[in-house]
Structure formats: structure tokens, C-alpha cells
Amino acid sequence: MSATLKLKSSGIDVIVLQRAPRAAGFSPGAIDGSFGPVTEAAVLAFQRREGLAADGIVGPNTAAALGLAAIPSAPSAISSVTVEIVSQMFPATPIRNIKANLPVVLDALVSAKLPDRAMVLMALGTIRAETESFQPISEGQSRFNTSPSGPPFDLYDNRRDLGNTGAPDGANFRARGFVQLTGRANYARYASTISMDLVNNPELANDPQVAATLLARFLGDREDRIREALAANDLATARRLVNGGSNGLDRFTDAFNRGMQLIPA
Predict the structure, then answer these.
(1) CA 85 to CA 259: how far, in whole Å?
(2) SS3 state of residue 10
């Protein structure tokens, strides 16, 4: 099957795809090899049922859930990712931090089946944007999270979009780790995913191995859309899929483009 299938795709791969959601109870319309709005609606419904990112794009995660033939995987880039190369992607970072934490990040990407160059660069670019020190850290206080006369992180306390339910959720579930996991909802979700009690022990998100695992799982949950954006060289969208905005886009882009030059295809 092709790397991704989406609205306006066509051909034999779409015919194979259309049969799969129908077998799962979601009608894609006519089995005609044309990925139109009806097929997209069926894919979206299937993704929601399975707890996948509901984007209507059939990439590796959705294809696997549908039981389709494996999408050809890109070769692993792990053996080419050295401390020396990463230090060039992180020119302001102490090399000792890269030496200490790069192995656990690469191991987590292998475990999450994201060892190819695109996803390795996505992970490293994310670290550069979120915590340029190449260490898992906690978010600091700023005018964006703490009111002038309030307790630390009080502006997060009642953020329903983060799943927070009032003080002291803002401080307890502030951003941590390589991916800067934020909010009670995310801590609860990934606590279940990695089988660690992040809700009652949120500081675990700053343990290097846990932080690396969270980074890999977070990217994996968005893998199909990230790959689509990277294939189009749309780094702004790839960054937004992680951060929700453009914060750190300059650092992400710089690290990603340096890596493209340094890590063999």
C-alpha cells in the first residue's frame, strides 16, 4: 500500500482500503478506487472508534488498525545519528547533555517503531524547540501561565482544554519533559499509555527515560499527520501538530534542516 492515502487519492490501493472499513462496519460508499468524502467519513468514523487521531488520513497507524498490508517502512537512521551530528543540530547545547540523553531518545524511537530519518529529525527538532538544553525540564513561570499577584501557574488551574479542574492543577501538570507534556488530561492519558502513575507523580515526566518514551508516544499518536506534513516539507504544520502553534518554530526548523544535511537519507 502507498505511504498515505487521503481525500482525492485514487487507484488500486484505494479499492483495497475501501473494503476494509466496510468490513469493520463503516460504509465507504462505492468501491470505486476514488477516495472521496464518503470514504473519508468512513475512515474518520473508524479512527474515532479505535481512538486514533481522527484526520481522515490513512497512514501507518490507521492502516495497521484496518488490517491492511503493511505500508513499506523507511530504513532506520539510528546508526547514523551520532553525538557529533546532533551537537551540530544543537549548536548552543553542552555536548555532555547530548551524550547523556541521546541514547535514551533513540531507544524510545526504536521501541515506538519510529527509527527512520523523518521521525528521528522530528523528535530531535521537537527537543530543540521545547528544551534546547537536551534535558527534560519543567516549564518556568511566565506571564502566560502566572498572574501578577497569583500563585505559580494559576492561569493554568482552570484550563478546561487541558483537563485541569482547579488549583493546584496548573502547577502539578505544568509542562515537563522533552515534549513539554502539559495538562491533567495529557498526564492521565499517557499515564495509561506507558503504565506509570503520572497523575500522582507528575515529576516522573522529567525522568530521562520516561521523557523519551513520552516524546516517542506523543509523536507516534500523530504519526500519520506528521509524515504527511514532512512529505510536503511543511515544517510549520509538523511543528503545530506537536505544539499547537508556532512557538519554537525557528529552532525546530533550524535543527531539522541541519539534520537533513548531516544524516544520510
Answers:
(1) 8
(2) strand
Lookup: cell for 4 = 498515505
Question: Distance (Å, rounded) from C-alpha 65 to C-alpha 48?
Answer: 12
- Report DSSP letters for 124-161, one per residue: HHHHHHH-TTSS-EEPPP-TTTS-TTSPTTGGGTT-GG
The CB-side HSE value for 206 (13 A sphere, CA atoms) comes to: 13
Give the number of other Cβ atoms within 10 Å of residue 121's Cβ. 25
CA atoms within 13 A on the CB side of 16: 14
- Which ranges constitute the DSSP H helices of the chain? 12-23, 37-50, 60-66, 83-89, 95-111, 117-130, 169-172, 184-194, 208-221, 223-231, 235-243, 249-262
| pLDDT tens figures, 190-246 | 999 999 999 999 999 999 999 999 999 999 999 988 988 998 899 999 999 999 999
Alpha-carbon distance of 236 to 247, in angstroms, equals 10
- Check: CB of residue 129 under 8 Å from CB of residue 135: no
What Rg do the C-alpha atoms of the chain give, in angstroms? 20
The span from the CA of 197 to the CA of 210, in Å, is: 11
What cell was used for 102? Answer: 541521546
Amino acid at 92: A
pLDDT tens-digit profile of 34-88?
999 999 999 999 999 998 888 899 988 898 899 886 555 678 999 999 999 999 9
pTM of full prediction above 0.85:
no
Contact between 162 and 186 under an 8 Å Cβ cutoff? The reply is yes
d(CA 69, CA 23): 15
